[in-house]
Amino acid sequence: xxxxxxxxxxxxxxxxxxxxxxxxxxxxLQLGNLLAAxxxxxxxxxxxxxxALVADLHALTVEHDxxxxxxxxxxxxxxxxxxxxxPARSILAVQSHLPEHPSAHYLLESATGYGEAARxxxxxxxxxxxxxxxxxxxxxxxxxxxxxxLYAGDGQLVEVPVGEDQDQHLELARTLARRLNxxxxxxxxxxxxxxxxxxxxxDLADPSRKMDKSNPxxxxxxxxxxxxxxxxxxxxxAVTDAGAGVGYDPLTRPGVSNLLEILRCLLGRSPAEVATAxxxxxRLKSDLTEAVIAVLQPLQEAYREIRSxxxxxxxxxxxxxxxxxxxxxxxxxxxxxxxxxLPPG
Length: 345
What we know:
This protein is of the alpha/beta class. Helices cover 49% and strands 6% of the residues. The chain is built from twelve helices and five strands. It has helices spanning 31-43, 66-82, 100-109, 114-118, 121-127, 135-150, 167-184, 228-236, 254-267, 271-275, 281-307, 310-338, and strands at residues 18-23, 49-54, 91-94, 158-160, 194-195. Strands 3-2-1-4-5 form a five-stranded parallel β-sheet. Helix 1 (31-43) links the parallel strand 1 and strand 2. Helix 8 (228-236) packs antiparallel against helix 11 (281-307). The longest helix has 29 residues, at 310-338. The protein is globular and about 70 Å long.
């Protein structure tokens, strides 16, 4: 006799109870990662319970070098710490160190239809024209749903800093929570998932595309470990526009607008306000170069110190995994119980 499903919880609070950020170790982190996801997470870690995952399982959806994967995972963790993430105030863990994630993933897969996964826009775009498509690419939104639901608690508002292209994936998490409650009598709180609108940093050489750490052409990508001479070269060669003066208009002047967007993130002002201080692109590029270097140099110094003590970095990650497991394990146990699995012991 099946248990009756509980109703959806009461409306979630307006302020997030937790923020879940996943950073994939698919390549060296770049300025867009720092400004769009890492900096907002660090700035708010005193205001909301922050869970930062080095999402190495998600990184397996694309071709990767097994010999480099572990080092990339340590690289991402060290950058997060060097940028100011405090493991005493926040939770920093490696996704694959938490067996709760793949376990919840499989259970959620058993409640997800093939059509639901196949209609995801990102899957259709990334699989188009490919002879061989990894199954993980199809099911990765379900793993993302597992990531969210494991930390959602009892209907808490979970803020997930992703772009608008992830809206489908976030809604899938809510859909699956409701389905498990209805079909299996689970007691999952339906998370109030709210995408986090961070900065949108575009490629310096091609402002029509996002700055991406996996871009095969690094000319327009400012990596967080770039030395000053590389920053000067890349910003100096950044694409600008034919219009006179400096103005913020992403539609008609995407190149200059991107430079203003980066500078405003560094200065904490609006891009239109920043634009009023400049009459030439050369002066804008010069000031942007120095502002980027001023932010990256202390981060790089902290990064080198962190990487110089691998045992301490591993200790921090182990402690973060223990704290993450304390939040995720009860939720996984509730899902397993709802599915009727035999408890261990």
